[in-house]
């Protein structure tokens, strides 16, 4: 299961991503917004709580640039959110960082690019190995 959320600036792209997910048969929980004004920290928290609780495995967050919502998500313990704007960053954040939240900017990328990013993010598994120790170190920073 996937959690997805956006503020008002990312709402349009979120709607396009949801259509794409529907076409793939991917189940998701929409954590808002529904087009109304919304603050990205609130949406990040609501969406990431679905991952922390185990209800969802991964998440997608969208705001205007993707920056604010990714910073907000990364403040939540257990979340590894990555702002991706292309195929390469989406692939390698899964392979090397085991990112569990994909962030995108609705005012930065179009629907076609977003679909490509979502597809690779969802289909790429964490490589583990030497990267696992680095992810462990990254996550240990939350406790300092």
From TrEMBL:
- Belongs to which family? Belongs to the LacAB/RpiB family.
Q: Which GO terms describe its molecular function?
A: ribose-5-phosphate isomerase activity
Positions contributing to D-ribulose 5-phosphate binding: 7-8, 64-68, 97, 107, 130, 134
Q: In which domain of life is the source organism classified?
A: Bacteria
The protein's Enzyme Commission number? 5.3.1.6
Which SUPFAM superfamilies would you find in this protein's record?
Answer: Ribose/Galactose isomerase RpiB/AlsB
The record's gene field reads rpiB
- Protein name (record): Ribose-5-phosphate isomerase B
Keywords carried by this UniProt record: Isomerase
Identify which residues the record assigns to the active site: 63 (proton acceptor), 96 (proton donor)
Q: Which species expresses this protein natively?
A: [Eubacterium] siraeum DSM 15702
